Automatic annotation (TrEMBL):
Other remarks on this protein: This enzyme catalyzes only one turnover and therefore is not strictly catalytic. According to one definition, an enzyme is a biocatalyst that acts repeatedly and over many reaction cycles.
Domain of life from the UniProt record: Bacteria
GO cellular component annotations of the record: cytoplasm
Source organism (scientific name): Rhodospirillum rubrum (strain ATCC 11170 / ATH 1.1.1 / DSM 467 / LMG 4362 / NCIMB 8255 / S1)
Compartment(s): Cytoplasm
Keywords assigned: Cytoplasm, DNA damage, DNA repair, Methyltransferase, Transferase
Protein name: Methylated-DNA--protein-cysteine methyltransferase
E.C. number(s) listed in UniProt: 2.1.1.63
Family the entry assigns: Belongs to the MGMT family.
Length: 165
């Protein structure tokens, strides 16, 4: 399965592709991470495009992703992940509101968010707990990473000032 690693403002990221679709994005240390601006970043055209789109997102030049995704998961998870992709850049939604949209419970939505194999690309960081509290985040760095991704999108959490990386 083709895989690349790349540097990002939220730490080193890796991406995996299977059958011409992205199947996983995660955080991890890898000695093969090229420095920013280095030459060939990817083993396949799709991974190269994903790296370019992520770099543009982190640079503030892109608000969404146009990539084939195949996250797998249960029917419930697929519904939640599809609903996550409908939350616009710079906006948030509560676990409860998202649960109402997909006919589920807030706890089940939170579990699906925690099992999201393509965070950032499927923007689970845009889902907040009741009253705008951060809730949780499964990516490396937990809530700090969630805060940084939301700050990149211009969304400070209640009681916080906006600070970019």
């Amino acid at each position: 399965m083709p895989r690349i690693t790349l540097a990002s403002p939220v730490g080193p990221l890796w991406l995996e592709e299977r059958h011409d679709a992205l199947v996983a994005l995660g955080w991890g240390e890898d000695e093969t991470i090229p420095p920013p601006g280095a030459g060939a970043l990817a083993a396949t055209p799709l991974l190269a495009e994903a790296a370019l789109q992520l770099a543009a997102y982190f640079a503030g030049a892109r608000q969404g992703f146009d990539l084939p995704l195949a996250p797998g998961g249960t029917d419930h998870q697929a519904r939640v992940w599809a609903a996550l992709r409908e939350i616009p850049f710079g906006r948030t939604e509560s676990y409860g509101a998202l649960a109402a949209r997909v006919g589920s419970s807030a706890r089940s939505v939170g579990t699906a968010c925690g099992r999201n194999p393509l965070p950032i690309l499927i923007p689970c960081h845009r889902v907040l707990a009741a009253a705008g509290a951060a809730g949780g985040y499964s990516g490396r760095g937990g809530l700090e990473t969630k805060r940084r991704l939301l700050a990149l999108e211009g969304v400070p959490l209640p009681g916080e000032t906006l600070s970019l990386f």
